[in-house]
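Researcher: Following up on the earlier apo prediction. This time include the ligand. It's NAP, with the SMILES given after the sequence.
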Amino acid sequence: MAETSTSGTTPTANIGVVGLAVMGSNLARNLASREGNTVAIFNRSHDKTEHLVAEHPEANFVPASSYEEFAASLQKPRAAIIMVKAGAGTDAVINALVDAFEPGDIIVDGGNALFTDTIRREKAVRETGINFVGAGISGGEEGALLGPSIMPGGSDESWVTLGPILKSIAAVAEGEPCVTHIGHDGAGHFVKMVHNGIEYADMQLIAEAYDLIRRGTGKSPAEIADVFAEWNKGELESYLIEITAEVLRQVDAATGAPLVDVIVDQAGAKGTGAWTVQTALTLGVPVSGIAEAVFARSLSSHPEQRSVSRGLPGPEADAQGGWTVDDPDAFIEKIRLALYASKIVAYSQGFDEIRAGAAEYGWTIDLGAVSKIWRGGCIIRAQFLNRIAEAYDQTPDLPVLLSAPYFVEALQRAQHAWRDVVATSARVGIPAPAFSSSLAYYDGLRADRLPAALVQGQRDFFGAHTYKRIDKPGTFHTLWSGDRTEVEAEDTH
Ligand SMILES: NC(=O)c1ccc[n+]([C@@H]2O[C@H](COP(=O)([O-])OP(=O)(O)OC[C@H]3O[C@@H](n4cnc5c(N)ncnc54)[C@H](OP(=O)(O)O)[C@@H]3O)[C@@H](O)[C@H]2O)c1
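Model: Understood. Below is the ligand-bound prediction.
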């Protein structure tokens, strides 16, 4: 029997949502549509709450006009998902909920928080006895309504209550819900951040493929849409390839031109790609494909620099009015292979960052499970994630994803085309930063010897930073400004 609270409100809801802008209201409707859920809702400006209740009577929402009323309408242990503007808004709502909730209750932040903020918030909220869960939610507004991919962190105790609720609303891929308990405190938001970083790389690679095809073959955007639609039937099958075909096919109603030709070529960003790269720099993980994707957006968004640079010298093809390939079909196939190989690198780098983050922050993250929950609901959903799951099933502690047998075979198949595409882009002066940096990363990993040995020599020369030798243990320094003999030294690596 439901108990009655001191405020007189009967606690009938098993889950609550705070923040009813597009993401929160869709998530609340998704929750309400699943059997067994009764959803309490609250928004700072009450008109949004009233509007949602009026628009969706079928959801049987339990609206609240104050945090106290919201808390009183929730069964214990209370569980509430915050979907508000990340940052100060999140902190304000957490503080209000901490005042209204009791030990054992659960506060979930479903916004795009920086994982270090989540670690800080989890620690602070835990001291009150209330559980705090940072959950990455991917899939945009449609995902929130129909089934997102959900990446929750937080305690094992919270997962017991939250797990069944989140499973009920998550996307389903091949019969499995796209949600798993990622790890403690900030682990969920960390994985969501890397998901977004991979998304940046994937999008940039697709954009480079489109640019090379268009300029090399002279095909129209609609014709290139057909190429992407065809690619979507094979190993590249993914949401991003699918929507690329849709965007390229779109005609602008006002001008009759392809929409892609009337959109200003300056890409925006909300910051999660930059977070992925900043974190990778701190962890010492080379996510070069993701970084190039972030930088490519930055470069595009400096019109004044681009304007003064337009006259800089370029290759001869420019002067001759452009460049075309002799065999368009063969060229397109090479680009498909280069795209697949570069995409393998982007995911490999992203998983490497998750592995390093887990080691740094003490999380136990099942990388195969992460790849599985990205198969549905989220922006980077792709058939190829099954191959990643298989690779980690076979070798859970794989040091680098692209060394798994399936990817070695794919890279073997693709590498000549990949090299050709990168060489061509450099020769004809078409920027392909994500393609080229991915190839350089691949060749760097493969190398028997790297010129890092010379860098160590230089560091020892100007800063006595010492070096190791390949033929004996110990740490050494050459007396560069003396007689240049070698001495044993303290390791100052
Ligand atoms: N949009 C997407 O595709 C997407 C995808 C994944 C994740 N996310 C994340 O999901 C969260 C919600 O996104 P959104 O686009 O739906 O909304 P939003 O525009 O980011 O935020 C608007 C909501 O935040 C509330 N809010 C802001 N400051 C507040 C404060 N100090 N106290 C209480 N409430 C406050 C607003 O309440 P009022 O109505 O009172 O102003 C409103 O409900 C964000 O963290 C976003 O990063 C968004």
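Model: Residues 193-446 form a domain with the N-(1-d-carboxylethyl)-l-norvaline Dehydrogenase; domain 2 fold (CATH 1.10.1040.10).
Researcher: Noted. I'll compare it with the apo version next.
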